[in-house]
Specification:
With 403 residues, the chain is of the alpha+beta class. 30% of the residues lie in helices and 27% in strands. It has eight helices and 18 strands. It has a six-stranded mixed sheet, with no helix packed on it. The protein has a five-stranded mixed sheet with strand order 11-10-9-12-13, covered by helices on one side. Helix 5 packs parallel to helix 6 and helix 7 packs across helix 8.
Length: 403
């Protein structure tokens, strides 16, 4: 059987991609370019999304909401994602302990790629996350590492992209994950490091000393060499078929049953959505009540969280204390992160209502991700990493605000 793997970015969108065609008894063929240049007649097609573009997170779902894909699922992880839930595509992967694991992706970016596949004549495909293609041994965590950053798989359905690290020092996010696992008695027995680039091996003794768990090299790894059935399907389409006319009368009772089931399913979805919206309204009302208790002179309560932050900022200004959303504190965090970028990288900086927008040029995507990681470590909150820059030139726009 032939297998075509297409490695694509939801942020960049089609048609550029990397691809690999493997077939039993033949040497694998790989390439890079636009989607139409790939060999599209494979029996099986897998769309692979980079690790840093898929959020794998836990949630506690009602029994009726545990479906592979549902518009309601995005509301369950609303607090962990940026933007409105309607902009995200969420799918249920399975259970981990007493929690459910969801995969969250950008809906618009995913739709663009699925539309491109359909236009290219590919109607059967699977969508995989690069993180869940990484091999995983019992009792271990697996880390894919290129010498500066990577991604880690911590369970059958769980993992995450890491921030920056060095040969002597592991990523900060990895240390935090291990500390969190230790508090719940779920620490791994060892950390297996798979190298995605040659000469990227870390200092195993130094990492062991900082992480507190044994670290071993597991050899080279690449998404092209992952086992065909080693990942977890985030999205899957089936083959299209047509019901023969001579079976229509025999299947009429089944069609009625299916219609009733569909109606019940629709009612269940509406009930799930209504329940989540009711909980959201209850939380909003509770926040408004607390705000009125703290500020009885308030004329109107529209957004209690935002109003409370603004009143706190105003009180700090009256007391002569700078607020985290003021220009100088945000610029200070950005300046500290900009020190490691080449001179002339910053083209435009603008500040408005607690948000600092930085337009960067002359750097690649990896350097931009390292810059964002340094901002996060410095206590800033990054709203978006956009490519290309708004001016039309190649580059990035990073929006920063206080935590």
């Amino acid at each position: 059987m032939s297998l075509l793997r297409i490695y694509c970015s939801l942020r960049a969108g089609p048609p550029h991609c990397h691809w690999l065609l493997s077939e039993t008894g033949r040497s694998a063929v790989q390439g890079e370019g636009i989607l139409s240049d790939a060999p599209l007649k494979a029996a099986r097609v897998q769309l692979i999304v980079p690790a840093d573009e898929v959020l794998l997170t836990r949630a506690n779902l009602p029994q009726g909401a545990k479906r592979r894909a549902s518009p309601v699922l995005a509301f369950a992880v609303e607090d962990e994602t940026l933007g409105e839930p309607e902009t995200n595509y969420a799918s249920w992967l399975g259970s981990a302990g007493n929690a459910d694991v969801l995969a969250v992706m950008d809906k618009k970016g995913l739709s663009r790629w699925l539309e491109a596949l359909d236009a290219a004549g590919i109607h059967r495909y699977e969508v995989h996350c690069e993180t869940l293609l990484l091999p995983l041994a019992d009792g271990e965590w697996s880390l894919a590492w290129d010498g500066g950053e990577g991604f880690i798989r911590t369970g059958e359905f769980e993992g995450a992209a890491t921030d920056c690290g060095t040969r002597q020092s592991p990523p900060l996010s990895l240390r935090l994950m291990l500390e969190a696992a230790a508090t719940s008695a779920a620490s791994p027995a060892a950390l297996a490091v798979y190298l995605t680039m040659a000469d990227a091996a870390p200092d195993l003794e130094a990492w062991h000393s900082e992480l507190g768990v044994p670290v071993r090299l597991a050899g080279p790894w690449d998404w092209r060499e992952a086992a065909p059935d080693g990942g977890i399907k985030l999205v899957q389409t089936g083959s299209r078929w047509r019901l023969p006319d001579n079976l229509a009368a025999r299947l009429k009772p089944a069609a009625w049953i299916a219609g009733v089931a569909l109606a019940l399913h629709t009612l269940a979805v509406v009930a799930d959505w209504s329940l989540l919206r009711s909980e959201q309204r209850a939380l909003t009302q509770q926040m408004a009540a607390r705000f009125r208790t703290a500020v009885p002179d308030a004329v109107a309560v529209v957004d209690p969280a935002l109003q409370m932050r603004r009143m706190l900022a105003g009180a700090r200004h009256v007391a002569g204390v700078p607020d985290g959303g003021d220009f100088l504190p945000i610029v200070e965090k950005a300046a500290a992160a900009l020190k490691e970028l080449p001179a002339g990288t910053l083209r435009v900086a603008s500040y408005e209502q607690g948000r600092l927008s930085l337009e960067l040029s002359g750097i690649d995507a990896m350097a931009a991700r390292r810059f964002v990681a340094r901002l996060l470590q410095g206590g800033a909150n990054v709203d978006a990493l956009i490519m290309p820059a708004r001016s039309g030139s190649s580059g990035f726009v990073v929006t920063v605000r206080a935590l």
